[in-house]
Amino acid sequence: MMRLPSKLVYGAGFGLLLLVFSSWPVPRLIIEAEGFACQLNTPRFTLSWIHSVEHSRWEEDYQLVASGFLLYTTRMESFGAGSPYQLTPSASQQEGVLEYTLERHFNELHWFISPSMDAQIITPSEKYYFSTWVEQMTSVHFTLQSRPLILTLFAKETCHAPE
């Protein structure tokens, strides 16, 4: 029986491992609105805005998961329209900010940009203002696109922070 050289076996194993690793699917955030589209390479992000009734800052933290979006934390500066009316075991309050820990899954997200909401998306590396991208009274749609890891490593983000 002929024995394969160990370098060949190790090289083939490394090549196979590299192929599997580089083709591993990685979710990419897609943001679309009328006349606007961009893509972000981020595993998590925060949507931040001024509530139209309460006039206080609200924030929601999302993680990209294979099935879509995982909302894992919500923060608000006050109780009011659309907010829970009492503290629960998953809630805490510090320095006037109420924080809820939760686990809600969404396939996609829809956001309506209204006047005076100061809508932002915050990633670990950047803060983006929707007012620089879209007009007021615009619907924004968030989806995921899975791409092979190798393409994600070399893909540029197409969203740009204001200068």
From TrEMBL:
It comes from Marinospirillum alkalitolerans. This is DUF1850 domain-containing protein. It holds the Pfam family DUF1850. It comes from the Bacteria.
